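WP5 quarterly update. Target: Vesicle transport protein. Source organism: Lotharella globosa. Length: 143 aa.
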Amino acid sequence: MFSDDRKIGIGLTVFGLIFLFLGVLCFFDTSLLTLGNVLFVSGICCLIGFKRTLKLFFGSMERWAGTGLFLLGFLLVLFRYPIIGMIIEAYGMFKLFFKFGLIINRFLHLSPVIGPILRLPIVKRMKGMCDYCMGRSESTLPE
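Structure tokens (predicted):
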């Protein structure tokens, strides 16, 4: 099903996310956050390959801001400013993976189980409020 590199990549990524969660849970413990960051990035590298990882972080000029913020946050965590570093790092990750989140959102709307739930009037109303707050005038998702 998966090659060994992908299995290792999935494991490293999951352990990275677990260590990041534990680092935040333990009042922003610097060592857990640093270990989580290293495991997460190495897991992504094993999962999609080194060239694709470089393309993910440095592929276009739009991604340079997200990459810079992620690296700045990583360095701030290393230099014992974990709260500020994690906030900056989270914003960098948001900028890097925002378009991927839109693809997941569209997939969830088209799925047979979650799609009808997301099309309920209360959920649509909440989505409309989010669109208004983000400055988008109309929805880009299918009805």
